[in-house]
Design a protein that fits this description.
Layout: E1 4-17, E2 21-23, E3 26-28, E4 32-34, H1 42-54, H2 60-63, H3 76-89, E5 92-102, H4 112-123, E6 130-135, H5 141-144, E7 148-159
Parallel strand pairs: 5-6
Antiparallel strand pairs: 1-4, 1-7, 2-3, 5-7
Family: Belongs to the IspF family.
Pfam family, one: YgbB
Binding site for 4-CDP-2-C-methyl-D-erythritol 2-phosphate: 11-13, 37-38, 59-61, 64-68, 135-138, 142, 145
């Protein structure tokens, strides 16, 4: 395999009334909750898919099927750590990751630094290698109607020395 690999991940979760959401391992108090089999951290799910995709290892559903009760309510940081162990096991390490979170609500700007640090701490990498951005869809589509949250994630993996 080449010295670098690029992976892309995309995930969406519906939202409903609740008492807060978790994105990038950070709890955000709001009037919503994400609907999912695990803890619903759509950002970490997209990041898992990007890592797995970079090495052609399938997707998050292959590794953690929602039909398996052991993953009910699972902590997505644990899932991310498992995916990163697979990356390391293939002889690669994270060069950088870039995530874009599309959510009409809640406003995410106050949590961006904590999100970057959470991912970095979970993976044991520098926060300067993690980028997290947030956007709205200007009230267009399912995100704009506050029916869901979508996340795009891109990773660059480098051959470990």
């Amino acid at each position: 395999m080449s010295a670098i690999r690029i992976g892309h991940g995309y995930d969406v979760h519906r939202i409903e009334s609740g008492e807060g959401i978790s994105l990038c391992g950070v709890r955000i108090p709001c009037q919503w909750r994400l609907i999912a089999h695990s803890d619903g951290d759509v950002a970490l799910h997209a990041l898992c898919d990007a890592m797995l995709g970079a090495l052609a290892l399938g997707d998050i559903g292959k590794h953690f099927p929602d039909s398996d009760p052991q993953y009910a309510g699972a902590d997505s940081k644990v899932l991310l750590q498992h995916c990163y162990k697979l990356v390391l096991g293939q002889g690669y390490c994270l060069g950088n990751a870039d995530l874009t979170i599309a959510a009409q609500q809640p406003k995410l700007a106050p949590y961006i630094l904590a999100m970057r640090e959470s991912i970095a701490n979970t993976l044991g990498v520098l926060a300067s290698n993690i980028s997290v951005k947030a956007t709205t869809t200007e009230k267009l589509g399912f995100v704009g109607r506050s029916e869901g949250v979508a996340v795009d994630a891109v990773v660059l993996l480098e051959r470990a020395e």
